[in-house]
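Q: What residues go here?
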């Protein structure tokens, strides 16, 4: 995207697509994304949403926060339902954008088979995964994307033993039309990547790290700071993959010029969910990040 065309607070649409007030928790990263994302998608849009925090936030009958048509489906079938809706719109001769918007549980775990099928068929939909790294809506149970060592109600003492799934890499193995990673701390980056995705045919996958204060164990006002800390220490990367070519987005690209990244320890210390991590685990995590960025510097140079 041309830098001159990037959205900022001055040229962001003032039209709102979400009514004031909803059932999101205070400090919810998803609520930031939803409000800004809808500005990019516009009104000619249909959402498919599985059971999730978004189901609650958008409104439980007879109250609705969203001004868009939304089809609530089952955990396992989000991408399959979106495929059917897209086929119906095509049959009607409509170009209405179909957007599947699911959490990490409905994407990386329960819904992964339907997503894999839609990716293999290259369905013309946008699939958004907001990744708050656990099943937050049902009580903070561990999910496939929960980070290693993260405390949840189902890993309550020493944290999750396994490493989290890398969904962008799993999706990339399907060779979709477009992949992007985003952060709730950079909503305008998400906005512009959605604008871009709308113009691309085929399946577009957007994965967003979405801090969750009650699930991550942080103060409500820390949502944006924690998301930025994840990027500044190189733990979570912002990038796009189009036609198989990967490009870092600006918040991550600027890290290429730094001789040493911020310590992951600072990011971890901002959340109680990582209080069970041992010193050895933190060192291993830092080594893993450093190795990844050594590879990025070889691949992309110094930015």
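A:
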């Amino acid at each position: 995207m041309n830098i001159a065309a990037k959205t900022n607070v001055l040229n962001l649409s003032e039209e709102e697509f979400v009514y004031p007030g909803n059932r999101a928790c205070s400090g919810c990263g998803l609520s930031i994304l939803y409000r800004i994302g809808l500005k990019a998608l516009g009104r000619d849009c249909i959402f498919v949403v599985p059971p999730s925090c978004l189901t609650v936030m958008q409104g439980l009958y007879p109250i609705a926060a969203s001004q868009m048509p939304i089809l609530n489906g089952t955990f396992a079938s989000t991408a399959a339902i979106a495929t059917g809706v897209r086929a119906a719109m095509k049959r009607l001769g409509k170009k209405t954008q179909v957007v599947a918007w699911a959490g990490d549980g409905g994407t990386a775990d329960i819904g992964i088979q339907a997503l894999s099928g839609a990716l293999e068929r290259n369905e013309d939909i946008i699939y958004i995964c907001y990744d708050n790294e656990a099943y937050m809506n049902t009580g903070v149970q561990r999910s496939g994307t929960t980070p290693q060592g993260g405390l949840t109600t189902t890993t309550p003492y020493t944290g999750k033993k396994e490493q989290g799934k890398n969904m962008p890499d799993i999706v990339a193995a399907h060779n979709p039309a477009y992949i992007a990673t985003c952060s709730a701390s950079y909503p305008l980056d998400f906005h512009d990547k959605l604008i871009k995705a709308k113009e691309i045919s085929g399946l577009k996958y957007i994965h967003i790290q979405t801090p969750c204060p009650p699930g991550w164990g942080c103060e409500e006002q820390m949502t944006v700071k924690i998301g930025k800390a994840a990027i500044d220490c190189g733990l979570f990367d912002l990038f796009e993959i189009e036609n198989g070519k990967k490009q870092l987005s600006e918040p991550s690209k600027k890290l290429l010029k730094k001789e040493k990244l911020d310590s992951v320890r600072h990011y971890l210390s901002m959340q109680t969910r990582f209080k069970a991590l041992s010193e050895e685990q933190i060192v291993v995590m830092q080594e893993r990040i450093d190795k990844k960025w050594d590879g990025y510097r070889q691949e992309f140079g110094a930015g």
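A: Context that may help when evaluating the design: The first helix runs from residue 29 to 41. The mean pLDDT is 95.
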